[in-house]
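A quick aside before the break. I want you to see a complete sequence-to-structure record at least once, exactly as it would be stored in a machine-readable document. Don't worry about memorizing anything.
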Amino acid sequence: MAALARPRDGRMIGGVCAALARRFGTSATTMRVIFLVSCLLPGPQFLLYLALWMLLPAEKSASTAW
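That is the input. The structure line, written in tokens, reads:
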């Protein structure tokens, strides 16, 4: 399993769904659909998304070695 960090590529808004998809080995589109469907259920899904957006670190850029 990959480390939980918001990727620099494949983001739509904050990269939370892309990070979760990478972590659990699924596509980002699938994770986005799951999130949208979960928003139809009662609960704090949107607040959880915002919290993860703030708490998850951004993926470190690949530095070029000279």
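Two observations worth writing down. Residues 23 and 66 are 31 Å apart (CA to CA). The mean pLDDT is 86. We'll return to this after the break.
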